[in-house]
Fold:
Amino acid sequence: MTLTMAATYVNGVPGDVIPASDRGLLYGHGVFETIAIRNGRPEHWLRHMTRLHAGCTRLGIQPFEPALLAAEAESIINGTDEGVLKLIVTRGSGGRGYRAAGSTGCTRIMQLHPWPEYPASCAEEGVKTRLCDIRLGRNPALAGIKHLNRLEQVLARQEWNDADIREGLLMDADGNLVEGTMSNLFMVSNGVLMTPDLSRCGVAGIVRTIILELAEQQGLDSRITHIGQEALFEADEVFLTNSLIGIWPVIAVGETTCRKGDITTQLQGLLADTTNSGPAWRA
Amino acid sequence: MTLTMAATYVNGVPGDVIPASDRGLLYGHGVFETIAIRNGRPEHWLRHMTRLHAGCTRLGIQPFEPALLAAEAESIINGTDEGVLKLIVTRGSGGRGYRAAGSTGCTRIMQLHPWPEYPASCAEEGVKTRLCDIRLGRNPALAGIKHLNRLEQVLARQEWNDADIREGLLMDADGNLVEGTMSNLFMVSNGVLMTPDLSRCGVAGIVRTIILELAEQQGLDSRITHIGQEALFEADEVFLTNSLIGIWPVIAVGETTCRKGDITTQLQGLLADTTNSGPAWRA
Structure:
């Protein structure tokens, strides 16, 4: 079955509206996951559930029931082979003011979107990127979480219109690279895999974690560290990751070009194996 | 007429739901105003409209029609003497992904809430506050705007339960005071009025601006500057401002006590005059 339009469930029921009093709207008080549906199953489901649960805990949102979400996901996927499942959990409604009062409920929103048709060349040959002007604010209390306060990414994405530029890279106030607007960033220098430290800002992506695990399994030296512009421009390989794109090699950062390398190609193959041979998605 | 429950308009029509695809929910892509309704009129309406318009411009939301908002506000206020008008303008719906695509529309949400019954002692005698642990991230591109990315304030407000503590004060990563969770911060030292610089984070409140104008009119020396903890603890007077509370003197920051001073009392009187004698609210 091929999906052509978005479908939405709110709290398990087909419907596409939420209360205007929802704290997800008022304050961005919620978290989300963007999950690839391929071959009729949500990829890395348990990893997404684990991160969602951790984000809820950090934001004071009561833990949801994973089995309930899995049943709802199965219902909305309903035989769709390929698509994108966006799952949002907010703190629900509760009073005017920053303090969550009244009901301790949460709102669950599931949206099933068509699969984005990225050109095959993005993964095979690589993509052009640019350095964004906007810098990410540091906030250790929010770092790593995929929360609903995403204005920095919105403003970053407004910086360019050139369809040839597939991603913008973001730095913090000190000029350390952090991530892309919708992806995590990796580079390889002298055989060492490196990705930015996300303890102060950034989203800890599911595929980022998988890549670090794969590197360890392969005996590839990897480091989570601070990466400045100079190190990026001198890297042997640069690539981007997220749950939909997998791995995209970077062939340009602004005017500086680079080429797809062997470690990137190797990791693309290993990542494809994990998504094709994962465990049954419903635990 | 006394309001006991919230009323909501969405795009000018009574109703309390928004699309689950609204970018206000997905990314916090929007701005809001919290407007005091007293004596049947929205206080400082034109100032709120000016700030709302500026915020929309900075976030790439198309300018709305002020006359339309005024007509809708009049309709929802509908003779209510006292209340709180919360006005939210989002980027509306438009695709999955950070880039605003498709329709260039916006969503207007107006919520009329009952007036919060703060004890008279808060303004007359003062309030106790605390220093929050969470620090505000720096982001000049978002600084000053009253946008919908408010997780820092939500987390700050979760730090305490003591109903006797009326507000938490927030610092940036360098330990500079910035604001309260729902208010702006002022202090007086040696006859000089001071309030934190908001060029890197914080919300530029309507009453904050009015206080600075009143100070100038009175020939009171005032400074927008960096204020560290030490300066705060040594201040002669400390007070908080927002559109609902007006001015609340601070009588304690954690274990450190202070007392309501003459300049605070003078500014309270001057502020009351501005709200009682403002221009006709509909331009």
Summary: Helices of chain B lie at 23-27, 45-58, 66-77, 120-124, 151-157, 206-217, 229-233, 262-276.
